[in-house]
Specification:
Blueprint lengths: L5 E4 L4 H12 L5 E4 L2 H11 L3 E3 L16 E4 L8 H11 L2 E4 L4 H8 L2 H6 L3 E3 L7 H13 L5 E7 L6 H9 L5 E5 L2 E5 L5 E5 L4 E6 L4 H9 L3 E7 L4 H6 L1 H8 L2 H14 L5 H6 L1 E9 L4 E9 L1 H17 L6 E2 L2 H5 L11 E6 L2
Helix pairs in contact: 1-13, 4-8, 6-8, 7-11
Bound molecules: NADP nicotinamide-adenine-dinucleotide phosphate (NAP).
NADP nicotinamide-adenine-dinucleotide phosphate (NAP) binds next to helix 1, helix 7 and helix 13.
Length: 352
């Protein structure tokens, strides 16, 4: 399949709709899809797009993809949606992209690498804010220090989160965090390690969190030890570490359902003004024991970056520029991919 027909699944969610609107503005002509007929039809009518309604539980899912070259999956939590869509893409000769940041989803999709290579198809999860900037930062740092033994990535986002991001985080509550140690994935506790990170305006407290880079940055760079940090308000690290005592309760299905309902009722996601005015900063450090290199990225707001990065990758894959098999953003397009996103700046620091 070599046409430029592509399908956006989860099109009427917060993130899907942002991407759909931008795609139409660029003349990229997506087919809008999802499981709720009323919501799909309303958006498709508003944007004058072709639409398709199907559930991921439909038998014969691949039949909905027979005439498309690429699927961008924006229906998360992706732990619930990636398996049927990846299988349907492989069965229908269709490239697969998504905007997941979930470690287990990256690892699961990677298991299809051989099959995708043989079929000359690209499987590229994580084309949003998770993990395009961080993956490109990791690849850039390893170009600066090729023999790096450890990598730390720090995140300082601003502007709040969408309902889906919070619901995906809720679905992971009560589970072990994961870190990359000596090339393997090991369980760890959220906030197990804390440190101060200078995101550009002086040191702030940060703590370890389970983000996708422990999977993707390893596959991009081969660095065997990887930790991800999130900047937190002063004093919060102590309280967040106590969360583990609540883990058995937070892992209960009814508790997660209640929290997700509260999110649906109370959270709308950042509005257009917030998305336009807020930024995010990423900090990365590689070390080989003797030498250290630090670089930072300043990006637009998380959801603006997601929209712009996802469409940049859609255009490149449709143009035939992506290698086959399971890819990360930087394994497919190199560390400079992030610099093609409007509003991104990269700064390098030199250490010994
Ligand atoms: N990588 C990144 O940086 C990044 C950025 C933004 C968002 N995300 C992730 O993207 C996902 C969506 O976020 P959002 O804010 O757009 O959430 P949202 O507004 O809640 O939208 C979620 C969308 O997914 C659909 N969906 C969920 N589960 C489904 C299932 N099992 N089968 C079919 N459709 C399903 C929903 O349809 P229904 O309404 O019918 O349930 C809805 O269209 C989240 O997992 C979020 O973490 C990642």
């Amino acid at each position: 399949m070599t046409s430029d027909r592509w399908l956006l699944y989860g099109a009427y969610g917060y993130t899907g709709e942002l991407i759909a609107r931008e795609a139409v503005d660029r003349g990229l002509d997506p087919i809008l899809a999802g499981r709720n007929r009323e919501k799909v039809d309303r958006l498709a009518a508003d944007l004058d797009c072709e639409s398709r309604v199907f559930s991921l539980a439909d038998p014969g899912l691949e039949g909905h993809l027979d005439d498309v070259n690429l699927v961008l999956n924006c229906a998360g939590p992706f732990v619930d949606t990636h398996e049927p869509l990846v299988a349907a893409c492989l069965d229908s000769d269709t490239h697969y992209l998504d905007v997941t940041g979930e470690i287990e989803v990256f690892e699961s999709i990677r298991e299809n690498d051989d099959r995708a290579r043989r079929a000359d198809l690209t499987l590229l999860p994580g084309v949003g804010f998770d993990v395009v900037p961080s993956d490109c930062l990791a690849a850039h740092l390893v170009e600066r220090l090729p023999e790096a033994e450890s990598l730390a990535i720090g995140y300082q986002p601003a502007g709040g989160f969408s309902p889906g991001t919070l619901k995906t985080a809720i679905a992971g509550l009560g589970e072990d965090a994961l870190v990359r140690r000596d090339g393997g994935l090991e369980p760890a506790t959220v906030g197990q390690t804390t440190r101060e990170i200078d995101f550009g305006d002086g040191p702030v407290p940060a703590m370890t969190v389970p983000l996708g880079d422990v999977s993707t940055a390893y596959h991009t760079t081969g660095v065997p030890n990887i930790e991800c940090y999130l900047a937190v308000p002063p004093g919060a690290t102590r309280w967040l570490r106590y969360q583990r005592y609540l883990d058995p309760i937070l892992a209960l299905g009814p508790v997660q359902t209640l929290l997700a309902k509260l999110v649906d009722r109370l959270i709308e996601g950042p509005d257009a003004e917030t998305r336009a005015e807020t930024t995010a900063t990423l900090w990365g450090e590689v070390s080989n024991g003797d030498a250290t290199r630090v670089s930072r990225l300043r990006t637009p707001n998380v959801y603006r970056t997601t929209k712009l990065a996802a469409l940049e990758v859609v255009e490149r894959v449709l143009a035939g520029d992506a290698p086959a098999g399971h890819q990360t953003p930087a394994s497919a397009f190199g560390p400079e991919l992030i610099l093609s996103i409007e509003g991104v700046e990269r700064i390098d620091e030199w250490h010994r």
